[in-house]
Amino acid sequence: MSTDISEPAPSPVLEPESHAAMLRIAVPNKGSLAETASEMLHEAGYTGRRDPKDLHVIDPQNEVEFFYLRPKDIATYVGSGALDVGITGRDLLLDARMPGAREIEQLGFAASTFRFAAPAGRFSEVTDLEGARIATSYPGLVDAFLDEHGVAADLVPLDGAVESAVELGVADAIADVVETGTTLRQAGLDVFGPVILRSEAVLIGAPTDAEGMETLLRRLRGVMVAQRYVMVDYDLPAELVDAAVKIAPGIESPTISPLRDAAWVAVRVMVPRKGVNQVMDALYAIGARAILVTAIHNARL
Ligand SMILES: Nc1ncnc2c1ncn2[C@@H]1O[C@H](COP(=O)(O)OP(=O)(O)OP(=O)(O)O)[C@@H](O)[C@H]1O
Ligand SMILES: O=P(O)(O)OC[C@H]1O[C@H](OP(=O)(O)OP(=O)(O)O)[C@H](O)[C@@H]1O
Ligand SMILES: [Mg+2]
């Protein structure tokens, strides 16, 4: 057998001829969104990066390419058409003011509100901010909101830790992400005025869907269904089916199967994970027995 090292053997990996048709997906590389976004893509069957330093990963089996980018930059890449879709925060999408990028789907994690805050008693309405200095790392978002309310204020753009800006004297108020409110409390600030925005992680894309987008969307929806719902099985006297279906109607319609005892049926239904114990109690109370709850690992509805 020849051992000619100048002619490498052809690669056994069958890669598609061109990467041009692959869906190009922007994924947060750091920060609050990164871990859950990558977990969700993994649950959806995609092969992401193994090394946290990787910037670009190709998943030929699923015909997608991942680009790991700063969450703040993702709307710019997608809105300019450089990438097809991305995962980012709604607040970051709106802050980027890119008409070429739109929200496609809510992804159900990283929920927060975007609020004004200041030392107690200094401001109470958005109109009180006329002429004030407002520190924020979301100047596009805040500017649009103030414009909408006819308020002219001076924005002080900062990269992060904006809660310190008032104490340090560079601003009179701040506008920032609030999740638990702990950071504001520790900085001695109170929220005031209207909720500027309710945000969460979202899938964003161009105004018209790229090829392959539908598959990604269906897979991500499947992951969300698996997270939000459980499967409930129970046995029930047949005449009680209508009452039971009122308690747990399922997404489309429960599956009813006959049992050997013709007076009883077996019912299988998807129930929101949150509140499943109340549903079980209510089913038991009307006469359901052998009520079993199992996890759903994945779904296509
Ligand atoms: N404490 C939080 N809870 C929930 N979501 C958050 C929180 N902080 C930021 N987010 C969301 O995460 C996104 C911002 O992520 P990004 O990675 O840019 O900032 P970060 O998590 O503050 O990281 P960094 O350390 O780079 O500032 C926004 O959509 C924001 O709403
Ligand atoms: O309401 P809370 O639960 O306290 O969360 C909100 C805080 O979390 C984020 O800050 P992060 O820790 O990312 O630091 P940063 O401000 O430097 O981005 C955000 O900017 C707020 O400061
Ligand atoms: Mg931050």
From TrEMBL:
This is ATP phosphoribosyltransferase. It is found in: Cytoplasm. SUPFAM superfamilies: GlnB-like, Periplasmic binding protein-like II. Residues 70-221 form the ATP phosphoribosyltransferase catalytic domain. Pathway: Amino-acid biosynthesis; L-histidine biosynthesis; L-histidine from 5-phospho-alpha-D-ribose 1-diphosphate: step 1/9. Residues 226-298 form the Histidine biosynthesis HisG C-terminal domain. NCBIfam families: hisG, HisG_C-term. InterPro entries: ATP-PRT_HisG_long, ATP_PRibTrfase_cat, ATP_PRibTrfase_CS, ATP_PRibTrfase_HisG, HisG_C, N-reg_PII-like_a/b, N-reg_PII/ATP_PRibTrfase_C. Its cofactor is Mg(2+).
